[in-house]
Give the backbone structure.
Amino acid sequence: MLAPTGHLGEMVVRGSIMFLGLFFALRFFLKRQAGEVGIGDILVIVLV
């Protein structure tokens, strides 16, 4: 049930793309508030 069914390289590439996408999205959205972090932003960061 917990054994990976895909190739290891594919999982690494997909995980890296998702991480970088979320990283840049958070950098963009958090920059717009000039230092203010709302509860929604904190929840997204905790989920990541």
Observations:
- The chain has a mean pLDDT of 76.
- The chain has two helices and no strands.
- The longest helix spans residues 8-31.
- The helical segments are 8-31, 39-47.
